[in-house]
Amino acid sequence: MSIAFGLPHGLCTRNSPTDSPYAPVHTKGMELDKPTQKNNSIVGDFAHGLYETAIQQPIDGVRQLIGAHVEQHDESNSSLAYKAGGMVGFILDFTALHKVTGGAATKLMGEPATGIFASEAARTATSMGVSGGIYGGLFTPSSESKGLLQGRLENAAVTGATFATMGGAGKLLENAKFLGENQFVSRVGSNAIAGGAGGLVSTIGNTYFTEHRMATASELARGAGEFALFGAGFGALDVGINKISNSSAVQGKYYDVKSTLQDTAQQAKTKTYTLLDKHDLRHPVARIGDALTGSKAILDNTPRPTLTAENNPVVAMEREIPKIYDSFEGIDARYESVDRSQRRQVFEEQKNKSIEFGEQLLKWWHGTETEPGVKQFTDQELATSTIPVERVAQIRKALSTQGRELDEPIAELFGRHSTDANSVANGIEYAKERFFGYDETALQKKMSMPREHWVKDREGLSPMSWMPFEPTDKLPNLFHGTVSSSLPGVFAERGLLPSAEIRSRGMTHAGEAATHDYGRRAISVTRDFNEGWGYHRHSPLSLDTYPVVFGISADVVPKLRTAGMLEPGEQLVDRLKLGSSLSTVLGIRRPEITHIYVPDSQIPAVSKLLEAYRIKGVSVVGVDEMPKPNWKPIPEIETWQQEDDWLRSP
């Protein structure tokens, strides 16, 4: 049923209205102001009934639960307008309640194609019955001639059964379409018949609980008739509402308002996080832990090489970079002058020069164990008598540039023009391999999936629980790739968040999320390590980052959902927890992110970050230390059926 029609007290068929659990009751001495009821006034009676049912009755129901005294009034002689107002009031309350409880009931029932809830009518009846039971047990006052618990349980039972009957019958009749294809006739007729069935249940229940007898035939007929009229009227209203709501003008306005509300909520959320960040209150418990343990002092006390006039990286850059650009120009001129057969050799020389330039920039920026880097010192510390602080700031800003624009600000610092011939960006990834110490080609060869596993990984028939290799203490089953600049944010949040959530929290973007105009609302997870590793290539070019891959336990599979044809082989998840906590120690929750893979040279730095953020239960593994996966065996496949069985097997 599309309209949740209700059970106002004016429609209850009974002989003793004062004993009915649905008779209106009021808290003595605590009645709210209500519309004035004018004698013989249809509008006044309607407003009075609407107020009594929609506002006063739920308030009295809750007050009675906390011990307030309520009085019951006999409204059996009330006018039809009063009863109509009561109907509308109950509908408003019940519809709002069903919006809240209906979704929860649906989640509890699980997937629609399983168990006793496989039928759509059964699911509708259950959802409506739960809402009716809550309304009857919580918001409907009971007679004080009975115990509170007994009265409320009776209310819940009758109201729940009534709405379950109406909901299930309405859905069956609506799906059967035995009243024809006309939407108005079908909806009104189905609701009327379902309302009559609900009226029978309501009359039987009320009569039994209030007077401990069976309802008479005339009472049943009267109750069914009243509820049938009630259902028919609101069925007609439902059709009208649907027609109005489905009009282009109304829908356009709806989506405009919805978009405005979403934008407002997003702005409020971002402002809230900004305020919390300003006062360092985003994670107050963690801040207390930092203060008590002094863990963040680990980062402040990181040793650095001694800075001298001879090893100052800014001085070296001012001296060496003009020479590097001169050599680029010489290579470019030679490329134009040599025979075409020799141009390949000159091109390779130009490529190697770009890689060497990138590697040298990385050394000047990061420093080494014995040589200081710009990143390790302030502008004031790096400034000299011939290189003012302002110039150092310009150099720092140029080296901090992200994206393909990395070349331009560096070239402009020295009065040069950025070209393809002198591009740092063209060789920066190879330069990172040299500087951070990893071999991407060898790594990908070691971790490459066998062809059959690769096909099954991307086949939509394969269950998400299937894993291509056996996990070890150094190699879990699932992966997510990013770059190193994401680590502080991940450690602060103690988990991975979707890029849309990162954006709303005002956090610095890292990885591919930095290039998205609109943040994604899920995290991508893959079984293929090489695919996870490759995600760092979608990130903006930067001197400041190196590839990072998070290793994720297969225990998260129940939380995953497929990415489908958009990204074959990948799964999506809303968020992932990092490391261990009290819940994982007690066995309440299984670990999720268990490993972090980085270049071997960066293991100490990442381990120090984990220690500073007091994160345990995560193994930092160098990519050279990674074991080759122990791939699961591949069956003999000779027929299409065998291949289909293989693809579908767990």
Describe the structure.
- It is built from 23 helices and 13 strands.
- The two termini are 40 Å apart.
- The protein has a four-stranded mixed β-sheet. It has a three-stranded antiparallel β-sheet with strand order 6-9-8.
- It is α+β, with helices and mostly antiparallel strands and 650 residues long.
- It is elongated and about 105 Å long.
- Helix 4 (148-176) runs antiparallel to helix 5 (183-211) and helix 5 (183-211) runs antiparallel to helix 6.
Give the helices and strands, then pairings.
Layout: E1 25-27, H1 42-65, E2 70-72, H2 80-109, H3 120-139, H4 148-176, H5 183-211, H6 217-245, H7 248-278, H8 284-293, H9 297-300, H10 313-337, H11 343-366, H12 379-382, H13 389-399, H14 407-413, H15 428-436, H16 440-447, H17 451-457, E3 469-470, E4 478-483, H18 487-493, E5 495-496, H19 499-504, E6 523-526, H20 529-534, E7 547-552, E8 561-562, E9 570-573, E10 576-577, H21 582-585, E11 593-598, H22 603-612, E12 619-622, E13 630-631, H23 640-648
Parallel strand pairs: 11-12
Antiparallel strand pairs: 1-2, 3-13, 4-7, 5-10, 6-9, 7-11, 8-9
Unreliable runs: 1-34
Report the sheet-strand fraction. Answer: 5-15%
Using only C-alpha atoms, the radius of gyration works out to 36 Å
Label the structural class.
alpha+beta
Outline type: elongated
DSSP strand count? 13
